[in-house]
Automatic annotation (TrEMBL):
Keywords: Cell membrane, Membrane, Protein transport, Transmembrane, Transmembrane helix, Transport
Coiled-coil ranges from the UniProt annotation: none
Location of the MotA/TolQ/ExbB proton channel domain: 51-136
Superkingdom, taxonomy of origin: Bacteria
Membrane topology classification: Multi-pass membrane protein
Principal subcellular localization: membrane
Gene source species: Candidatus Scalindua rubra
InterPro entries, A to Z: ExbB/TolQ_transport (IPR050790), MotA_ExbB_proton_chnl (IPR002898), TonB_ExbB_2 (IPR014172)
Subcellular location: Cell membrane; Membrane
UniProt family annotation: Belongs to the exbB/tolQ family.
The organism's taxonomic lineage, starting at the top: Bacteria, Pseudomonadati, Planctomycetota, Candidatus Brocadiia, Candidatus Brocadiales
Record field: transmembrane: 12-37, 58-85, 97-123
Protein name, UniProt field: Biopolymer transport protein ExbB
Xref: NCBIfam families: exbB2
Keyword tRNA-binding applies: no
Length: 144
């Protein structure tokens, strides 16, 4: 049972770390695209929007789902703790508290992934909107 618990714990945390790396990589790639983009190369606003918002949905998905994946790890950790209590018949309070506290680490990691991902999404989306507004101004399509 200990091997299964470790596999679940580190599997969930490993997946969350992977999601964090993906989110950060996409945000960096998008910011580099924004920096090197020439607005004059686009004759159509929709084509510009497609280029600017490419892959942003992945960052948003990671930001919104990371807490749930962390919560899944916590629920599984609590289930393993209760399983151990049931198997032993009696368990010291200290061991129970340690098991429950360690189960919460997955939720903490999920939040540590989600919060920066949501911030990166909002930051890159704002950059995209600013570039679209600049394109509209340059092409005489600004205003209400």
């Amino acid at each position: 049972m200990g091997l299964i618990k470790l596999s679940v714990d580190y599997g969930i945390i490993g997946f969350l770390i992977f999601m964090s790396i993906v989110s950060l990589s996409i945000a960096i790639e998008r910011l580099l695209v924004y920096r090197n983009l020439r607005l004059g190369d686009f004759s159509d606003k929709k084509l510009l929007e497609l280029e600017l918002t490419k892959k942003l949905h992945i960052i948003a998905t990671i930001g919104s789902n990371a807490p749930y994946i962390g919560l899944l790890g916590t629920v599984l950790g609590i289930m393993f703790t209760f399983y151990n209590i049931g198997e032993e018949g009696f368990m010291e309070t200290g061991k129970i508290m340690i098991g429950l506290a360690l189960a919460l680490k997955a939720t903490a990691v999920g939040l540590l992934v989600a919060i920066p991902s949501v911030a990166l999404y909002n930051f890159t989306l704002r950059k995209a909107k600013v570039l679209i507004m600049k394109w509209e101004i340059e092409n005489g399509r600004g205003g209400v």
